[in-house]
Every structure is written in structure tokens, then in C-alpha cells.
């Protein structure tokens, strides 16, 4: 039951009144909530930005598509068109046999051996970067590319891709787990303060029930109270996260820049904030509804 | 119309507060419920208001058997009953005005309606200039009057009052009863428990006497 606008306004005023009735105690609760919410946000930032750095340092996974030896110009062009038409590739680059040979000469100093060859033994090849680094997708892509006309062999540094992917997954799971644990902490803290709040307002709850108030009417101020607390905690978490990002970036500038490593954490983006605030809303609502419903069920038994 | 039909109320500790009460209260009646302490007056009022249910027998409000209604439906009925509790049940951390406004908050009235009706109700019980005070600052009699204001504010068709003159001196007691009388003349049904026989004897209406959970006398009195 939504109740009238007046009832919602009344409940919200009651919630604010409760919050202001013991500002210091509630401030402490909000601080705990803020810290609990800020921690996973900042960690998420660190890991995702470090991951991005690792990927740019190591280069994204790539596949080498080898054409048949002495493939004709038309075969090469057909392969190029086919590759460029694919939406699952981020980039396609052709490396001619001559260029490949020059590269080998430059990097290995096998001039004598190579000079002894009377023709270039290397096939033409395309180096392609897939958009999706997930191992199964890479394997599927490898199979698909092999079926293209003129393609002889598709090589994939599967081990490397798998390792990077696994590491990414692992940290993501870790953060999810941590976020879950801390969300539970937040819920517990809010439910606990609300329980005390409801007990303190016991006489009031009873009078309201005697005067014919619905359970929804009784619940509403506490739901608002829970939402307010967690929302304020989330706002605090946003401030703390911005501060933490600034501090980490300052440290990176001081310590990593001289080493030629450029790492900057992005401040959490609006989508992440929306997720945090939305989560806070849901948690506050859940905590409020849960606590009062339990109390009422207990109370109505007598 | 209120029908109390063969009602028993046994509390969990085994005490039988009501033992077979039959009572028919017509709409527009003014009924005084008398009897010694422990006779079962408060228990009967709670059953009539649907706060409590009989262990045996039926209480019907406008034909509706309260025992057959679910809690939310009984709450809905209660919102249209003016209730005065023997133990006041005021919110001590809320102003006089907010206490009187509570039934209207529950009904979800607009702020301007709430203000207007609360001022009128406080005015009727002589607390017009005490709206901003806390109940703590009120005397026992003033608190009693605040309870009555809270019962009036929703303009109920039925008022169920438990010892509404308990803490009032003769003068205010008479004033409050006069107020109830005027409501009754306007068509409101009143059920009032009191052991202050001296105060109500001078008033007309129906006087029901309860003793040890039974009705021992039921008489119409002319004023
Ligand atoms: N919640 C309860 N649990 C157990 N016994 C109760 C309860 N409420 C009332 N009683 C008992 O029921 C009997 C009737 O009580 P009730 O309060 O209805 O009397 P009353 O007529 O209103 O008395 P008073 O004039 O003192 O207010 C008493 O013996 C009382 O002890
Ligand atoms: Mg009583």
C-alpha cells in the first residue's frame, strides 16, 4: 500500500525527526555504512584501472592469420575484406612476407642464414585483435577464421590470453565477494539501529495500532529512516571514494611517473554512482521493512 | 448498532473478565458503563472497539462480526471510532498538537485539514493555547482532555471512552460530559465507562451496571 502523499510526507518527517533526535549516534552509524560502501568502490576502481594498465602494457590478445605461401594479390584482398567485415575484430593489420622477413632480420641478426635463402620462406599474414578476450570466444574465433578462403593457419597465444582472463575473473570475484560481505555488514548495522529505534518507539507503535493504523503506516517512518541512513552513508562513501582516488593518483604521480609508468585511477563514473545509490536505496528499504515487520509480528502475537 | 451477544472473555492467565454479556446498543445512544473496579468495563470496551476479540460469543458492529474480520479490516473500522484510553496513551515526545493530530495522520488528511481540525478539537476541550506544549507540561486533567481531543478530532460516529473523567475535577468533568452530550445530540453514539456514578447520575442516557463480568442492571435514566 502506497498511502497518500500526506502519509508519505508525515513518515518522512518522522524519519528525519528520529535522525535528528540522536545526531551523534546516527552519525557514527552513517560513518560505518560510508566506510563499508566506499571500500569496494575504491577497490573496484584500483583493480579495473590496474587491469587496463596491464592490458596496455602487455598488449591485447592477438591472433595471427597466416595465408598460403605465395598467395596471390586477389586472395590477400579477399581475405582482407572478409576480416574487415567481421564485427568481432577490433583491428586488422596485414604484414607482407617482405616486412615479416625484415622484422626477423632486425630482431634476430640471422642475416647470414637468411641471405642463403633464394626466396622468402614466409607467408603473408594478418594480425588481428579480437574485441572479446574470453578464452572460449577466442577459440571459436580461431576456428571461424580458419574457414576463410586462402587461410592456411590461425595462431593464438592461448596460454597468455587465458592467464590474463583468469586473473581478471579472479579479482572480479574477489571484489564481488567483498562487496557482498560489506553489504551484509551495512544491512546488519542498519537493521540493528532500526531494531533499537523501533523498541524506543514501541509506545508510539502501539498507540498507532490501537488507533487503527495499518502495518504499512507504522512501517513507513522506519523504512524512510533506513533509506535515509544508507543514502547518507552512500553519499559519504562517494566523498570518501573521490578522496581516496585523489590520494592514490597523487602517490602514482610521485612514485610511478618517474619510472615511466603512467597509472591514474578514474573517479567512479555516474553509472557506478547510480548503482551504489540504487543499492543503498534497496538496502535501506529492505532493512526498514524487515525490522518493523518482524517487530509487528511479534507484537501482534500478544 | 453494536450487538454484544453471549460474550465471554478469558485472559491467558485463566481470569474470566466477562462471563456472558448481552447488550444491544442502538446508533445514537449514549451509554454509561458502571461497576466496581475489575468488573470488566475496560475489557468490554476493547471488545466493542475491535482491539480484542471475545473468547466466546459475538460482537457485531453494524452487523459485522468482528471475530470474522481480519486484523486490517478491524483496523479500518477502528479508524472511525473515537477512542479514549484509561491509561491515556499519549506520545510524551510529541507536542499536544501532534498528539491530537495522530488519528488524522493515520487517515492521511492534508496538512491544512489537519491543522484546522486539531485547532477546533483542542479548542473544544479548553486546550486551545497549549498546542505547542509537550504532554509532560500538562496537568493530569489536561492530559485527559487531550485524550478526548484526540478522540474527537476524526469526527467519529462512535466514541468509546474509558474513564474519560477519571482525572478531572467536578467542573471539568461536567464540562466534558456536556461536550459528550452535545455530540450525542448531533447523532454520535457514545459508550462511556466510568465508576464516577455521582457525576453521570445527573445525566440522562442509558446506564448499564457491570459486576464480576456480568450485566447486573440496565436502565434508561432521564436527566
Ligand atoms: N491483559 C489482562 N490479562 C489478564 N487479566 C486481565 C487483563 N486485563 C484485565 N484483566 C483482568 O480482568 C478483569 C477485568 O478487568 P477490566 O480492566 O476490564 O476491569 P475494569 O472494570 O475496567 O476495572 P477498572 O474500573 O479498575 O478500570 C480484572 O480482574 C483484571 O485483573
Ligand atoms: Mg478499566
Task: For this entry, give a set of tags.
heterodimer, A: Alpha-Beta Plaits, 2 domains, four-stranded antiparallel beta sheet, elongated, B: 223 residues, alpha/beta, Rossmann fold, 7 helices, globular, binds adenosine-5'-triphosphate
The beta-strand count of chain B equals 10
* Helix-residue proportion of chain A: over 70%
Distance between the termini of chain A: 25 Å
Distance between the termini of chain B: 23 Å
- Annotation field: number of helices of chain B: 7
Q: Count the domains of chain B.
A: 1
Principal-axis shape of chain B: globular
**What is the residue-averaged pLDDT of chain B?**
93
Query: What ligands can be seen in this structure?
Result: adenosine-5'-triphosphate, magnesium ion
How would you describe the oligomerization state of the chains in this entry? Answer: heterodimer
Helix content of chain B: 25-40%
Order of helices and strands of chain B: EEEHEEHEHHHEHEHEE
Count every beta strand of chain A, where a strand is a DSSP E run of 2 or more residues: 4
What composes the largest sheet of chain A?
4 strands, antiparallel
Largest protein interface, residues of each chain: A-B, 20 and 26 residues
Number of helices of chain A: 10
Please tell me what the overall shape of chain A is. elongated
Question: How many domains make up the 3D coordinates of chain A?
Answer: 2
Query: So what's the CATH class of chain B?
Result: Alpha Beta
Amino acid at each position: 500500500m502506497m498511502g497518500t502523499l500526506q502519509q508519505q510526507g508525515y513518515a518522512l518527517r518522522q524519519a528525519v525527526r528520529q535522525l535528528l533526535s540522536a545526531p551523534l549516534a546516527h552519525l557514527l552509524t552513517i560513518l560505518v555504512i560510508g566506510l563499508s560502501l566506499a571500500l569496494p568502490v575504491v577497490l573496484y576502481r584500483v583493480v579495473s584501472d590496474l587491469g587496463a594498465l596491464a592490458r596496455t602494457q602487455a598488449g591485447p590478445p592477438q591472433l595471427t592469420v597466416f595465408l598460403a605461401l605465395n598467395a596471390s594479390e586477389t586472395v590477400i584482398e579477399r581475405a582482407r575484406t572478409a576480416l574487415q567485415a567481421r564485427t568481432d575484430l577490433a583491428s586488422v593489420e596485414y604484414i607482407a612476407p617482405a616486412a615479416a622477413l625484415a622484422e626477423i632480420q632486425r630482431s634476430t641478426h640471422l642475416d647470414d642464414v637468411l641471405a642463403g635463402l633464394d626466396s622468402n620462406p614466409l607467408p603473408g599474414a594478418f594480425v588481428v585483435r579480437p574485441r572479446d578476450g574470453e578464452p572460449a570466444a577466442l577459440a571459436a574465433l580461431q576456428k571461424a577464421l580458419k574457414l576463410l578462403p586462402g587461410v592456411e593457419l590461425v595462431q593464438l597465444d592461448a596460454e597468455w590470453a587465458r592467464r590474463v582472463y583468469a586473473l581478471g575473473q579472479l579479482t572480479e570475484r574477489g571484489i564481488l565477494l567483498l562487496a557482498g560481505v560489506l553489504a551484509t555488514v551495512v544491512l546488519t548495522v542498519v537493521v540493528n539501529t532500526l531494531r533499537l529505534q523501533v523498541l524506543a518507539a514501541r509506545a508510539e507503535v502501539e498507540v498507532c495500532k490501537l488507533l487503527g493504523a495499518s502495518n504499512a503506516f507504522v512501517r513507513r517512518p522506519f523504512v524512510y529512516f533506513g533509506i535515509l541512513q544508507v543514502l547518507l552513508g552512500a553519499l559519504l562513501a562517494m566523498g570518501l571514494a573521490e578522496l581516496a582516488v585523489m590520494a592514490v593518483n597523487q602517490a602514482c604521480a610521485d612514485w610511478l611517473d618517474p619510472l615511466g609508468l603512467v597509472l591514474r585511477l578514474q573517479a567512479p563514473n555516474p553509472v557506478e554512482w547510480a548503482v551504489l545509490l540504487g543499492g543503498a536505496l534497496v538496502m535501506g528499504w529492505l532493512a526498514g521493512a524487515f525490522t518493523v515487520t518482524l517487530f509487528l509480528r511479534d507484537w501482534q502475537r500478544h | 448498532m453494536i450487538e454484544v451477544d453471549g460474550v465471554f472473555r478469558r485472559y491467558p492467565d485463566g481470569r474470566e473478565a466477562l462471563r456472558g454479556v448481552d447488550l444491544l446498543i442502538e446508533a445514537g445512544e449514549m451509554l454509561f458503563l458502571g461497576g466496581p473496579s475489575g468488573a470488566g468495563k475496560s475489557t468490554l470496551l476493547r471488545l466493542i472497539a475491535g482491539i480484542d476479540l471475545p473468547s466466546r460469543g459475538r460482537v457485531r458492529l453494524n452487523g459485522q462480526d468482528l471475530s470474522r474480520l481480519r486484523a486490517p479490516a478491524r483496523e479500518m473500522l477502528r479508524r472511525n471510532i473515537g477512542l479514549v484510553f484509561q491509561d491515556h496513551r499519549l506520545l510524551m515526545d510529541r507536542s499536544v498538537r501532534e498528539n491530537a493530530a495522530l488519528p488524522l495522520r493515520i487517515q492521511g488528511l492534508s496538512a491544512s485539514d489537519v491543522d484546522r481540525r486539531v485547532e477546533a478539537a483542542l479548542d473544544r476541550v479548553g486546550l486551545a493555547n497549549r498546542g505547542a506544549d509537550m504532554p509532560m507540561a500538562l496537568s493530569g486533567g489536561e492530559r485527559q482532555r487531550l485524550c478526548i481531543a484526540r478522540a474527537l478530532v476524526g469526527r467519529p460516529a462512535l466514541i468509546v471512552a474509558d474513564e474519560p473523567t477519571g482525572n478531572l475535577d467536578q467542573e471539568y468533568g461536567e464540562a466534558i460530559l456536556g461536550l459528550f452530550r452535545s455530540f450525542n445530540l448531533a447523532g454520535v453514539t457514545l459508550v462511556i465507562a466510568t465508576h464516577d456514578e455521582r457525576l453521570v447520575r445527573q445525566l440522562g442516557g442509558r446506564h448499564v451496571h457491570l459486576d464480576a463480568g456480568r450485566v447486573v442492571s440496565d436502565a434508561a435514566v432521564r436527566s
